[in-house]
C-alpha cells in the first residue's frame, strides 16, 4: 500500500486500476505516517446487510458504533459496491464486484475521489468542482457544469497568457490557498503545488463576454451548488466556516463567456485592474535606427542583458509607467490616444504588462 501526501494530508491508498491514476498520483508519493487509509478490494461477492437506517432506489445506508457503510445494488438487488469506513474516516474500505460493473476503473476512481474529498473537508478544505489556472503565481478558479467551458477557458490561459493548470476538475481550497490533487477528471491535468487564491469565477456560456461581481448571497448559492457536498453533520460543520471565509475574503464573479481565446483578457483584467505598478528605476528609452529601445543604466546594466524594442503605443505605455499606473489607467490611455475599442486596448495592455513582468521590469 503506497503512501502519499496530498495537500499536506498524509494518506495511504491502495488501488487496482491504472487508467486514471497511473503517471498522475506518483507526484504525491511521500514517506509519511498516514493519518488515513483507503483500500479498494476486488471481490466476487458482497453480502447484503439488513435494516438500513436510510435508503433510496440503489443505495442502502448502515451504521453501528464503529462504522458507517453504504452498499450500492443493481436492478436485481445484487450488491455491486460497498464503502465501509470508520466514523472518523481513518480507515476506509471500498469493495467492488468487478463482474457487476460496466466501468470498474472509472468507478474505483470516482469512489477514491469521493472519499478523499470527504477527508479533505474534515481537514478544513473546501473542495470545489472547478478548473484552476495559475498566472503570476496566483490561482484563478473557473467553476461550471461539465460541458460549459471551464476547461476550455483554463486552456486559453495556457495558450494566451502562458498560464499553468494546477487542477482541471477538483482543486481544494484552505486559508485562501489552492492545492493540487491527483483527482482532476478525465484530463489528469494537475500539479502537486499550492498557490494563493486570486479569484473564483462561475461560468455560463454567452453570446458576448460579460462579467459581474456576485453579491454574497448569490455567491453562496453558487458555491454550494459546485462544492463536493458533505453527507454528515461533522463534515458540514467542518466545511461551513471555510465557505464563509471564502465568501468574505475572495472576489467571486459570474462570467458569461464565449468560446473565444480573447475571453481570458476579461477574466484576468477584472481582479487585477486596480493593482498599482511602475517601471523599476534604471531604464530609459532611446531611438536607435528606426526603433525605440529600452536600455538599462546604472545598477540595472549589471542585471538586464535582454533587448526590448517598442512600437509607438508601447513607448507611450512605458513612459506612462514611469509613474504609478494600473491596468485600468493604461487601457484608458490607449483609448484616449488611438482609435481602439476597450476590448482591444485591454488585450494590448495586458500583453504589454505581461512582457514587462517576464523581463522583471516592474515593481
UniProtKB/TrEMBL annotation:
It comes from the Bacteria. InterPro entries: PQQD, PqqD_sf. Pfam families: PqqD (PF05402). Gene3D superfamilies: Coenzyme PQQ synthesis protein D (PqqD). This is PqqD family peptide modification chaperone. It comes from Paracholeplasma manati. The lineage of its organism: Bacteria, Bacillati, Mycoplasmatota, Mollicutes, Acholeplasmatales.
